[in-house]
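Quick one: structure for this chain?
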Amino acid sequence: MTATARSARIALSTASTYPDRCASSFALARQLGYDGLEVMVWTDPVTQEAGALRALSELHELPIVSIHAPTLLLTQRIWGPDPWTKVDRSIELALDVGAEVVVLHPPFRWQKGYAEAFAEGVAEREQASGIALCVENMYPWRAGRNAGQRRELEAYLPHWDPVPQPYAHVTLDLSHTATAGSDALAMAAALGDRLRHLHLADGLGSVRDEHLVPGRGRQPCGALLETLAGQVFSGAIVIEVGTRKLTPAQREIDLAESLAFARLHFAAPMRVR
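Got it. Here's what it folds into:
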């Protein structure tokens, strides 16, 4: 016996409206009908301040489902140089705004001390805080114009692929699987219940991290959403697409299309017990 399709829990990443301010993300998410926000911590002071984020959440009646820690290459100066400080402050921010997830990248290769204790540190902080620290899949860095001449640099430790690592919770990013040349469906299957968070985007397999609107690349975005819907996936699906070169009208169209794609494919009959 089946019931109506399970309604999707689809959030908008504030990175999808970069370089606009965080407040713009909330307003646009409410206008388009998203279910919540993922806040990327960056130089916008609002992204670092729990009171301001709570005010935006209340104003637009949208929950903050996750905090993305400032562990990107471009956010290395946010909250100082110590990576664990960045993680700890992200956990505090998540607790203060009612988010259940902190997304973070694996350590860079030059952060050897941080990398050596990374898995243990993540597990300890999850247990102490109750927040799921979802380590994101990344990709090897490649140099060279021609495919036959490209050189790969392993930029992350212990690795860019979280599947064989002992992380309890993982974020799967489909733009990153495109850049890495990974099989997204196989990764999701291998992760099983460890897959807690999804960054929905697309890619054509370029050396650049493209973050295309889902359906415009070569990743199995629809198939993965349908699979997760059939498994009654309870984590958040976060739209994280690049719109920085678009006009406001074009951005609105792309984010509306991304939401429609997610709602269409994350809809499968669920069993009634």
